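Run Beta-lactamase-related domain-containing protein through structure prediction, thanks.
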Amino acid sequence: LSHILYRATGMTPLQFADEYLFGPLGITTVYWLADRFGVECMSGALYLTPREMIKIAHLMLNNGSWNGDQVVSEDWVDYSTSQIVEQPYHDITPGYGYLWWISPEFGFYCAQGRFGQRIFIIPEYNIVLAFTCHINDWLIQPWDYFIEKFIIPAVLENNTQTSTSTETSETTDLPIYSILLFSTVGIGVIIIAWKQQSLRRFFKRSNYCSIKIPNPNCMVRQSNCLLR
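Sure, done. The structure for Beta-lactamase-related domain-containing protein is below.
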């Protein structure tokens, strides 16, 4: 894909992304490994911060729109996140679109990076998630457990409080649960120890990971600064 893009546009993947994706989203902290021809590898080796991963997730959740600008066409978002082929050996994400893994059972689609880097979009609940960790064993896939047992229940539990707080908050085009998840960048991080009995069956050795879920005490306006 890297060289197809380069031949079609005359731009490397990073140059193309800077102009048409990273630039509009305000993504500046990027490292992307290039081959010996100076063309970045589109199969991986892209390094982003969790905050910038969340920006991409929010763009997809908003059907390609960012702060009122259509960065990616809505048709492409819909098409690329539709199941094109089946991946029966993937229990959680048995579907695959155009570079997006799809889970009909859990109602999300996601981007998957090496060692457990994940971007999740759950349209039904207006949720976006970014996971960063270092898991060497690809058989360890706890994301469905985290989403089903912790994240979605936390969102639903705060539904009433969130609805009340938005009645007096300034207007924004951010979906409410996306706002709450944005506001957790730096303020709503829960550290879950692998040693805990309820999670022990997912991991072979002691470690830890940061998981971002809605902070029940945060207000909508707290997250607005992340999008300016």
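The chain has seven helices and twelve strands.
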